[in-house]
Amino acid sequence: MSSLMIPRRRFLTGSLASAAVASPFGIVRGAPVTFSTDPYTLGVASGCPREDSVILWTRLAPRPLEEGGMPASPVEVEWQVAEDEGFARIAAHGVVRATAELAHSVHAEAKGLRPGRVYWYRFRAGSAVSPVGRTRTAPAGGNSRFRFAFASCQQYEQGYYAAYRDMAARDLDLVVHLGDYIYEKSWGSRHVRQHGVGIPTTLAEFRNRYALYKSDADLQAAHAAFPWLSVWDDHEVADDYANDRSYTTRDPEHFLKIRAAAYQAYYEHMPLPPSARPHGPNATIYEHYRFGDMLDMLLLDDRQYRSAPACVNGGRPTWVQDCPERTEEMRSMLGRPQEQWLDARFQDKRGRWTVVAQQTLMAEAKRKDAESGDRFWMDGWDGYPNARRRLLDSIVTHKVRNPVVIGGDRHAYFAADLKRECSRPRGSTIAAEFVGTSITSQGPGESGVRSALAGNPELIYANGEKRGYAVMELDSRSCTVGFEAVDDVKDAHSAVRRLATFVVEDGVPGVKAA
Fold this sequence. Notes:
The chain is about 15% helix and about 25% strand.
């Protein structure tokens, strides 16, 4: 891996300055497009790296909080990928049409690239040239290490993105975002900035919400520094929704219209391939990425296909007493087609490490209640215990080498040893699990976190006091995970410090403190 560091300010440079330091594009075809203000207000991004390709993203939005402020007509956008920052050695280039149908967003697939190397990219619409981004293709094999960050839950009002400012300065191959990229609702206390409007339900409203979040300079810097992989959780649509069920919108037909708008806006604002483009309220975002002989990364979608929450009678899935419905065999977190797809991917594993990237805590985290007995969180894997068992059984059946599960959602750090039978602490550990805290979103009460540690033997570590992200480094001997914590999320320039470090040794699935 290159140890090259790129200053954050480089990714925030305006289009005119970018044009001045880089070699020119080709001749403008047709009538030139002109903009009265910078159309690249939302930055640039890359994602979904393969050995020979990467997705490049931007969105033309001179007035980002007014649905972009673009005319209805399409605009030709040229893109370039180069082997050097000065764009003297162009590796790939092309032209795409940015249309009003997709909010003038661009999803360009740059092909024919070389594996395991750094590239620089930029866009031009008319005479407006974008800031320069950096990306990296997946290695073909023989990579000695692989290092990535994973993050989730970035409620805009509840803090600044100091975690992304820190992340952008790191030496990483990849960023994995595990959901709650935006929040549809305002909640929590001590807000440092505001959404300014209510809960989005239409495509125009979701577009403006993404534009607000993506206007943040630190988030733009993290996107411009590395390729991203991303999956959604609930707040990209509605709190705690499950498939076509929402406790906030009881009519499934109406809710699916909201989901269709939310899914399209997500696609329009993330560096996703055309295969992820929604068709109405449906979109396929679960996928398999391979990084040489070091890593198989499996991205899951545990929202779109899950069974309705158990034991809540159509209400909000929360901490409730157990009921027979929770343990019905047919209940699924992923939906049976995705379960079958995951089983096939486990059979096809090649990497030394297999990371299952999903949205939440997989380990059991029940609460003890002296009067009513165990209580379970029905919006997570505890509400779908047989689906969890099937996933872990598949890992065992296919002898997956070094399986590691990562997640977010819970606004707390967790490290756990995953076992087939959660109540048997001496049972065999099947996989290690690490959950990152939120980027900004308010954490749980510390008493609840301590109670979870005391009452669930799978859990090795838990901390809900800090916001931040996690970094995972893989090599031939070990997987090392660092929990990176922001000192003060209310301070845009806050320091970020290592809170805890854990290691999983090659061939030994248990979590160890470093």
